[in-house]
Backbone:
């Protein structure tokens, strides 16, 4: 399983700003190793964000996203103590989900 995501969620004026740093190699399938063999594609393909268990955002990603991707978004109406969850799935079927409390 991949390393935990670093999730920060802070309230400011009725909205929560959520910042997420995901640990993932994000290979495009176009690079070659030292022996000249193509490195297979391995990237996050789906990202879902929840606020207190309700889906608030989904994203479909491809090979053009950088290694260890960073994502930021806002949630309207969030307040301190609410739970924000992030889940990703990659093209090899691996998944990761983590949760943070809004501060």
Residues:
């Amino acid at each position: 399983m991949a390393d935990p995501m670093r999730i920060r969620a802070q309230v400011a004026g009725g909205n929560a700003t959520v910042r997420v740093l995901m640990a993932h190699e994000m290979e495009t399938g176009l690079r070659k190793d030292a022996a000249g063999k193509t490195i297979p594609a391995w990237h996050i393909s789906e990202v879902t964000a929840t606020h207190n268990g309700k889906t608030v955002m989904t994203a479909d990603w491809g090979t053009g996203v950088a290694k260890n991707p960073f994502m930021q978004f806002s949630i309207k109406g969030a307040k301190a103590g609410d739970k924000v969850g992030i889940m990703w799935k990659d093209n090899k079927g691996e998944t990761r989900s983590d949760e943070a409390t809004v501060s």
